[in-house]
Design brief:
Strand content: 15-25%
Shape: elongated
Number of helices: 6
Oligomer: single chain
Distance between the termini: 23 Å
Number of strands: 4
Amino acid sequence: MRVLVVSWAYAPALYPRAFRWTAVAEHWAGRGHQVDVVAHGVPGAPAQETRGGVRVHRVGGDLANRVRRGLGGGSPAAPDPSAAAEGSAGANGGGARAAARWVHDHTWKQLYWPDFACLWYRPAVR
């Protein structure tokens, strides 16, 4: 049987969904099924690889999460500890950062919730 898994998080990402889908996909591949995974790109991971018998295709940029981390927050599902540490230490550019964060929180954040990965869908479909 051929199986396609479409999941924003997949190994080597360190999220519960990545652990779960990696285990499920590798289990199916181990049972002789042809498994392909379309997942979000991970810094340092190749765009295409075979892991545990599963063909993994990583697509899409991470513009929204990079902007959010730059404003002092992480994605709802993937908080960035370094961003929190910067924020607690009194980050530079506090006024501009606070204004940008306010704009983000009152515009884009109202549209994407509860699905922070919504911008990833178009690259995944391609």
